[in-house]
Design a protein that fits this description.
The protein is an alpha/beta fold. It has three domains: 83 residues, Winged helix-like DNA-binding domain superfamily/Winged helix DNA-binding domain (Arc Repressor Mutant, subunit A, Orthogonal Bundle); 89 residues, Periplasmic binding protein-like II (D-Maltodextrin-Binding Protein, domain 2, 3-Layer(aba) Sandwich); 105 residues, D-Maltodextrin-Binding Protein, domain 2 (3-Layer(aba) Sandwich). It is 44% helix and 23% strand. Strands 3, 4, 5, 6, 7, 8, 9, 10, 11 and 12 form a ten-stranded mixed beta sheet that branches. The radius of gyration is 21 Å and the shape is globular.
């Protein structure tokens, strides 16, 4: 019989393409994750992962198990939710995923309102980048996610709840500090700081520059918006960043903003749910707090 615990670990490894990242997501050590995948391979009598390549790659059998594993785990999670719903155990629990930027600048106010209006509901919070959250949403590990656009996944549907703009930020001592606007072509001449691949911000920056062109720009990738802001304050380069993320620094005079000219600099924040998802009471109450808009 297939071990569901080991299968879940394997699916995380296959989905994330990394033993280390899977271990972090599962709150396990990397050796334990490797041992559990090896035990699953031994149980099945086949190799699931090709370990002879520099980049982790699934074997043909591994690809097949990954596809079935995603479906099996989703069904198992749905069964657990259904049983608990029948017993009245999950109606008051919200499993919420939130992107890094929204978790820092928008979520505190939303959670404060939520707890005030629905004190009996509990929240289990996961913070990650857009790609990670959409995968967890598809797998049934979270109920809803608040993410930046673009956010695309075949099992997920989205609706806008907030709009923002991207702006260029520089330090007050930067040569551009007095500029009112710049074009993408000008940014290509500077060191650019941005978020890591998988984040919605990175996808937006890639779209604005073009993937090939972005690869030719001197770029520093950082995992947190706060790290980007601190680096720009120290004069390490320029950044494209969400306007909601730099209000405090602009007021304090530690950063300058410059309009981005000649491109679509709009940012949209989305609520994402699984297709055909029926929210429980706790999720419905949270969704009702959001000012949903047309996409």
């Amino acid at each position: 019989m297939l071990d569901v615990h080991r299968l879940r670990i394997y699916v995380f490894v296959a989905r994330l393409g990394s033993f280390t990242r899977a271990a972090a997501m599962l709150h396990m050590t990397q050796p334990t994750v490797s041992q559990q995948v090896a035990a699953l391979e031994s149980e099945l009598g086949i190799h699931l992962i090709d370990r002879n390549t520099r980049k982790m790659r699934l074997t043909a059998s591994g690809e097949v198990l990954f596809a079935y594993g995603e479906r099996l785990l989703k069904l198992a999670d749905e069964a657990l939710i259904a049983v608990r719903n029948e017993a009245g155990l999950t109606k008051q629990l919200l499993k919420l995923g939130v992107g890094h930027t929204l978790a820092t600048y928008i979520l505190p106010g939303l959670l404060s309102r939520y707890r005030t209006e629905h004190a009996d509901y509990r929240v289990r919070l996961v913070v990650g980048n857009t790609g990670e959250l959409l995968s967890q949403l598809s797998a049934g590990e979270i109920d809803i996610a608040l993410v930046g656009s673009p956010a695309e996944h075949p099992d997920v549907e989205t609706k806008a709840f907030m709009h923002d703009q991207l702006v260029v930020i520089v330090s007050p001592q930067d040569e551009w500090a007095s500029y009112e606007s710049v074009r993408i072509e000008q940014i290509s001449t500077r060191v650019l700081l941005t978020r890591e691949p998988g984040s919605a911000l990175y996808k937006t920056v890639s779209r604005l520059f073009g993937e090939d062109r972005l690869m030719s720009v001197e770029t520093i990738l950082l995992g947190e918006t706060e790290a980007i802001k601190r680096s720009v304050e120290l004069g390490l380069g320029v950044a494209l960043i969400q306007k909601i993320a730099i209000e405090r620094e602009v007021q304090q005079g530690t950063l300058r903003t410059i309009a981005l000219k000649g491109v679509d600099n709009a940012r949209t924040y989305l609520i994402a749910v699984r297709k055909r998802y029926s929210p429980n009471d706790a999720a419905t109450a949270f969704i009702d707090l959001l000012p949903l808009q047309g996409t």
